Amino acid sequence: MDVPGTVFLIDDDPGVRDSLALLLSLKGLSAQLFANAESFLGSYQPDQPGCVLTDLRMPGMTGLELQGALRERGLDVPVVVLTAHGDVATARAALKNGAFDFLEKPIDDVMLLEVLHNALRVDRERRAAVTARSSSDRRMERLTEREREILSLLAAGHQNREIAAQLGISPRTVEVHKARIMEKLECRSLADLIRMNPEAD
After folding, report:
1. What's the confidence (pLDDT) of residue 1?
2. Which pLDDT belongs to residue 95?
3. What is the pTM of this model?
4. 192-198 own/partner pairs: CB under 8 Å, 24+ apart
């Protein structure tokens, strides 16, 4: 099964890296391997969809410190933390810091794959939402100040006549503005129009 997105696998143990990489490739998941968190941070591009699968305890930067570094840089990528049995308290701290999940070694393959699929799905959905939002913002920029004013009043539930009276224009002019707003925002109905209004958030 071809799953969009890459699993960025970070573990200082070459044996663990190789065995996990083999498992992921057999299950149709793309993986990039890193021996430490520093090398991952040095090469990661924010436009690369995917999720991080990182060991908790590593020489140099730990899994927890990696989470902090990603947050400081404003990089929103799901992080799945691998931990030995004795690290469960630390792993809970990782969850509090925003980790997507943590898994204990030795890893159950089925659970690992399920968690990674979910992490990749969450990343895809977040990216799609950001893209939709930026597209919506670009369309909103096409509106004049008066059109924004009318959109806001329409979204608040006012009828054409009420808007006309409030703005000192004719209902027909409101109708013309509304048609232009719908055209500029690429909306087919009043409901679409209202959803596009940023003040509706």
Report:
1. 41
2. 81
3. 0.67
4. 193/151, 193/154, 193/155, 194/154, 194/155, 196/136, 196/139, 196/140, 196/151, 197/151, 197/152, 197/154, 197/155, 198/137, 198/140
